[in-house]
Description:
The structure is a homodimer of 231-residue chains.
Chain A: H1 9-21, E1 30-31, H2 34-41, H3 45-57, E2 61-64, E3 68-71, E4 77-83, H4 86-92, E5 97-112, E6 117-130, E7 133-143, H5 160-167, E8 172-181, H6 184-190, E9 197-207, E10 210-219, E11 224-230
Antiparallel strand pairs in A: 1-3, 2-3, 5-6, 6-7, 7-10, 8-9, 9-10
Chain A binds a DNA duplex (30 and 30 nucleotides) through α3.
Amino acid sequence: MNKLQTNTWQSIYDEVLRRIHAREWPPGQVIPTEVDLTVEFGCARATVNRALQTLADAGVLERRRKFGTRVALHPVSRATVDIPIIRQEVETLGESYGYELLSDDKTINLHWQNDTHNGQFRHLRALHCAGGAPYVLENRWISLETVPSAKDQDFSDQSANEWLLTHIPYTHGDISFSALGASGSDAKTLGCNTGSPLFSIERLTWDHDQPVTAVQLLYAPGYEIRTRIGA
Amino acid sequence: MNKLQTNTWQSIYDEVLRRIHAREWPPGQVIPTEVDLTVEFGCARATVNRALQTLADAGVLERRRKFGTRVALHPVSRATVDIPIIRQEVETLGESYGYELLSDDKTINLHWQNDTHNGQFRHLRALHCAGGAPYVLENRWISLETVPSAKDQDFSDQSANEWLLTHIPYTHGDISFSALGASGSDAKTLGCNTGSPLFSIERLTWDHDQPVTAVQLLYAPGYEIRTRIGA
DNA sequence: GGCGAGAATATGTCTAGACATAATAATTCT
DNA sequence: AGAATTATTATGTCTAGACATATTCTCGCC
Lengths: 231, 231
């Protein structure tokens, strides 16, 4: 029974992870209870709880009341991706940011998903540039019912991307990443060949039950999202 | 001073988020200290702490010792993406899973990043299928120094993807998502046209300072990653 | 044997208090 | 005035104990 001296939740986190990696606790194994671990590590239960909870959030452990805590059978790589405002993304790269509104259609009827929410939408197309070169094409629909203030907003200087994120809240959203071939008009706008592989982010955001906005972001060829995974 | 009755960290989380959304606490604003909030909500500091900490993890708040807590100036959409074992990904779709090892080269010298880590690697190419159709092409390098047991492992029945994730631990990794055009040979393997837009995931994993494995996953056309964002 | 009520149990969360830590503000010394 | 030291402050974390809650197990009943 080798008690550890440092009783921080981080040290317990590390030790539990070490045992999992060392296969002392193989996948599927039910590990000792929080109380058992408090005895072993000589600390309070809240400390063990925080370590195990964090590991559960990371997908390493699975916890169920009464049953206990076990090592996850199906390891996943859990990556967190930050999607910033495009202007900031460009400026972080050290490039000058440019923005151009391509089209603005104020009274579009959009069928939102499976016809459940349709109504008046404002449709915008805009190009964001980095260092003078096309960076991403924004294809945007804004619900005028949920966001009435978008009706009179001027998007010729500030992008809908930036205005919405800094002014209009949302509770949740669906997001998807995919690879698409550039259409003829997209290729022309982005300055690439028709059919060039483009990285696409599509996002639907909601405020409770109300649709807020839908957007498709088509990034110029060469774009990639980078992030780190841990544990 | 309207005190709330329900003093769970979730309710405080919701209330703080509501005030941010309602612009009672606009971006950049320093919000009351934890102690002030404990007085207002009539609860323990640990409860407020958990609510604010969770919001900080979500990117909504920024916290600094002594300075206090303020509403994030630069809102980001923070998405967590789970990347499972490919076999499970296919089976979750309700499709039958197929696997074929295409090539296996046991003594490759790979220049790992900027020449800092090079050495003996095993190089594998394999095709994962869903419902008989090509699903993803796996291009894999495994460090034989860090993972000596990979030298004699048979990858003709079980993919390196699955074997590594279930047997070899790692401490951290870099991951990137991008869109690439299919090369001639890739197109032939995946059953698509040359130049078709392919979703690509590239991953480098490390065990402390030792490189473990590098992989490029080229998904057949039509693939997309879906996830949700909250807050 | 099947079913429902109740006991047992491990996690989830809250409290009240304490000390640690980082970063700023104030003060003292040169 | 400028540098070094000290105080202040808000967050970060830990403790010990308590109650809540979701599940599972068990036992008695039909």
